[in-house]
Structure formats: C-alpha cells, structure tokens
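in:
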C-alpha cells in the first residue's frame, strides 16, 4: 500500500469528515429524541460508521493515480 494506515493527511481528511458528521448528529441529538432503548445501538452504529469511513478514505487514497483526483 502506498499510504500508511496512520498517514497524517489521511487523518486530517478523516477528522474533517468526523467533525461534520458529529456536528450534524449532535444537533439531532439535542433537538431530536433518540429513544432510550436505541441509544446503545445508535452509539455502536456510529462507531462502526466511523471505522468504515476511515477504511474507505484509506483505500481511496491508496488507489488514487495522482493527488489531484
């Protein structure tokens, strides 16, 4: 693989996406209502989503033919 799993630019890209996603979900959790019986499921789903986003970004970075894609 060309890009390591803990590459700085990959982390920076991931953190931008996580901050946007966290802001949206944070606003929803403030103004919306997540039922108590679904809070654990929602938390685990969020963690899995973050892991999948990171893996997607990492794989995409490794398959780029140049940095302008």
């Amino acid at each position: 693989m060309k890009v390591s799993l803990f590459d700085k630019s990959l982390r920076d890209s991931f953190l931008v996406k996580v901050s946007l996603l966290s802001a949206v979900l944070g606003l929803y959790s403030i103004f919306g209502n997540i039922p108590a019986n679904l809070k654990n499921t929602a938390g685990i789903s969020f963690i899995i989503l973050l892991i999948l986003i990171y893996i997607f970004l990492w794989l995409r970075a490794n398959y780029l033919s140049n940095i302008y894609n």
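note: The two ends are 17 Å apart (CA to CA).
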